[in-house]
């Protein structure tokens, strides 16, 4: 078991605040602004998700982002660490699996309040139980196919599942940008709100969830997440492995794939 006091201040890229009724607000950020993906958050988030899931004091979890976007591309080129060998890719393979698995293993309801564009690892908010977005939110896979990488770290599972097979493949292979209204129409988000109403609405939803007994909340979450867990168990490791094969091949051909 984890306790909030043990882990709440130990991570650089996620700010954790918990109310007296057990609603945990987890805000992704880089130096207080929009999260810039890189090695540091990639290594931190599997651990923080594990701590959140292992803490019985968390009754509902709200994930959101700081600044104008939910997650942006890497801002510091030194964070890009493509691996030249299969052994060097193993950390990406290992961490990529646990990034998703540990999020899905949080056995209390999770709410994604997507405050703006989700341009990297947008599978994370879409894996939450209740997904709402601001009127500025948007979805795009900027980190894979369009920059020379195989989209094998989880986006290959969630987008065909949510959009349908043909639309999901189109999205991943063309760099399509899906903005808030279309995201609502397609079912990526379930509510679209003005930015200043997003977090208040997330807390309203948390209050609704808290009306049910603890085991009803936990067991409902465990039941409804099984299909996602099964789908990721079957294909996530495979996707990460062949993504790594293409990275290694790129290095052998003197290309420079980006993290």
Secondary structure: number of strands:
9
Between the first and last Cα atoms, what is the distance in angstroms?
33 Å
CATH topology: 2-enoyl-CoA Hydratase, Chain A, domain 1
Strand content: 5-15%
Structural class: alpha/beta
CATH superfamily: 2-enoyl-CoA Hydratase, Chain A, domain 1
Just name the CATH architecture.
Alpha-Beta Complex
**Helix-strand sequence:** HEEHEHEEHEEHHEHEHHH
Shape: globular
Q: Which value, in Å, is the CA radius of gyration?
A: 18 Å
Widest beta sheet: strand line-up: 1-2-3-4-6-9
Weakly predicted, low-confidence segments = none
Number of domain units: 1
Q: What do the pLDDT scores average to? A: 92
Just give the CATH class. Alpha Beta
Largest sheet: 6 strands, mixed
Offer a few descriptive terms.
47% helix; alpha/beta; 6-stranded mixed sheet; 259 residues; 3-stranded mixed sheet; 2-enoyl-CoA Hydratase, Chain A, domain 1
């Amino acid at each position: 078991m984890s306790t909030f006091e043990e882990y709440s201040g130990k991570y650089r890229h996620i700010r954790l605040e918990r109310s007296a009724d057990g609603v945990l607000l987890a805000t992704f950020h880089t130096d207080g602004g929009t999260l810039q993906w890189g090695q540091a958050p990639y290594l931190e988030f599997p651990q923080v998700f594990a701590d959140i899931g292992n803490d019985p004091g968390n009754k509902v979890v709200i994930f959101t982002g700081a600044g104008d976007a939910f997650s942006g591309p890497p801002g510091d080129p030194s964070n890009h660490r493509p691996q030249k060998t299969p052994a060097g890719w193993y950390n990406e393979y290992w961490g990529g699996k646990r990034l998703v698995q540990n999020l899905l293993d949080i056995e209390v309801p999770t709410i994604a309040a997507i405050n703006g564009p989700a341009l990297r690892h947008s599978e994370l908010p879409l894996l939450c139980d209740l997904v709402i977005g601001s009127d500025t939110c948007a979805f795009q896979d900027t980190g894979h196919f369009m920059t020379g990488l195989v989209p094998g770290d989880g986006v290959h599972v969630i987008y065909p599942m949510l959009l349908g097979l043909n639309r999901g493949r189109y999205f991943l292979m063309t760099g399509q940008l899906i903005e808030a209204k279309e995201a609502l129409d397609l079912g990526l988000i379930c509510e679209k709100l003005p930015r200043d109403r997003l977090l208040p609405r997330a807390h309203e939803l948390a209050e609704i969830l808290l009306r049910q007994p603890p085991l009803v909340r936990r067991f409902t979450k465990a039941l409804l997440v099984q299909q996602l867990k099964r789908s990721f168990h079957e294909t996530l490791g495979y996707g990460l492995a062949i993504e790594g094969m293409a990275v290694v091949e790129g290095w052998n051909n003197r290309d420079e794939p980006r993290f």
